[in-house]
Amino acid sequence: MTAKLFRFALLAICLAPAAAAQTPAPAKTAEPQAGTKGNEPALPYSPSLDLTSMDKKADPCVNFYRYACGGWQARNPIPPDQTSWSVYGKLYQDNLNFLRGILEAAAVKSSTRDQPTREIGDFYAACMDEAAVEKRGISAIQSQLDAIAKLQSARELAPLAARLQTAYGGSMLFSAHSAQDLDDSEQVIAELSQGGLGLPDRDYYTKDDAKSKETRERYLLHVQKVFELMGEQPEAAKRDAETVMRLETDMAKASLTRVEQRDPYKLKHKMGVPELEQLAPNFDWKAYYQESQYPPIAVMNVTSPEFFKELSARLAAEPIADWKAYMRFHAVNSASPYLSAAFVDANFDFYRKYLRGAKEQQPRWKRCVSYTDRGLGDALGQAYVAKVFSPELKASTLDMVRRIEEAMGQRIRELDWMGAGTKKEALAKLDGIRNKIGYPDKWRDYSTLKIERDDFAGNMERNAAFERRREINKIGKPVDHGEWGMSAPTVNAYYDAQMNDINFPAGVLLPPLYDAKEDDAPNYGDTGGTIGHELTHGFDDEGSQFDAKGNLKNWWTKEDREKFDARTKCVADQYAQYIVVDDIHINSQLTLGEDVADLGGEILAYVAWKDATKGKKLESIDGLTPDQRFFIGFAQWACDNQRPEDMRVRAITDPHSPAEYRINGVVVNMPQFQQAFSCKEGQPMTKPTEKVCRVW
Ligand SMILES: [Zn+2]
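Above: inputs. Below: predicted complex with zinc ion.
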């Protein structure tokens, strides 16, 4: 995960990041589409409209998602090592398998390997050397644990926190990173955000329902287990676990909710270091920034001041021994996936098995390919792109992007509820959007990162430190607009409100999502809708608060904003009625931006498709009309199967609605759909005209 994603609230990602980061399953279709020249396995092919994925017995006007995806759901049970299973997830699995071939070839020692090949090959080889990892055990991170043991006072904690954050990323106490200034997107400043929790969200610590209580009990047992693996006796480990829970609960209560974090004004608190020292006086900020090697800080942003105030109060009030227990746990918990089997298993048992419902650990090679993709995404991405993403594919997807943008311009000009002044600003914002397709123009250089073939945990630490250094070095410098927040093989996409750019990695532009062999109808329904989705994020309830330059600046008249808010409220009210799992409803204030983007994106795709095929005579294929094929193509990006455990986590943490509603919730608002399938008034996939939601 790149540092940009620390402030995930301002990045609109097409899918839940977790869905893209997991995945895998055996490839069923065998027709190769790429990679046939080398020894790598080929990426399997499946079409962007797959008749066998449908359930023709289902009535499209009663449950369109089941009609389009019922066959896929029946044929694709969730693999035991997965927490969910989906078209996107399956494609990422195919990618992992394909990348494995690249990495195994790269790992073979030879004098002819170029720099990126040597980097990814040695990184992967070190991860795969399970015997070496096993032999080192916890000693791989002993120096960090020794440093924690030496801690004498809360004041001394700051420089140590800096070192541990450098080694393990942001889970220690809080998150520190760089970010674009909300008021001046061309400047990069230092930023501090809440963090420090071991459960996936602050709500897990504050909710009182039976399931939340059970989760806290299980988490306590997990923390205790980690202490025991460090060598503590069960009694002491239990006491230490209770301490960790107590400290985290205090931090959770002072944390912003995910819905609050969707309001950029709630995240904007610019100050200098002296004001930060007043806000949180019990943490030695000077020592912290010195140890982290920050450049001089003139101004910074603290996204959640209350959190830092509380953290400071706790640092003064709690014994240093308790903070040492907290830091020991977080150091080991963060490093567990890279340590010996006992730690890996404990981590899996709680986070993937209990919390998300996986039955089995993923085979080691899958994890190693994922770590390489995450850590050295630009080195691995070069090899990937060279094999799967041709210049022709880049050109044809870019053409689709342009058509969707034209459709957006047309819609803005035609809106009957928006005044001319706001329209002008909206069009300027649309005009300012940068399109990033496939992969970066300039690949990141990892040559200063030391990669050892026999030191997996060390590689991970140095990799985290490298990324943190890169983040910090951006402070005070102009923004690099060419930077990407996702690696090229990632099966996902995003809009960045401060960059005002839409980003589509190569991984999301391949079959079955974009299929050069198919006609326009399913491709516009699927990838056209994804492009429209990211574009609409620039104009959803959150993105619409940023202007063409990516600054947090109102460009709406009061009257137009009120009309816009009434329109988004229609969407929020609709999705609030849907159930995620058990009796848990969608938190539609959390999912609003995504729901608006889903609806807007598909409308744009439809308009652009009609425009692209104007004057062409479109034929029915396999008994399905062109319009029907457009909508089935749309629905089939989202075919999935979910475990109830995973759904419960997502109900709290995921800003996206469940897949079924990302389809059915959209088509009920599109009369073109009702016409395409001759749905009758009163059927579930229809709405009375006056209740149809339409934002853009
Ligand atoms: Zn999105």
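The radius of gyration is 25 Å.
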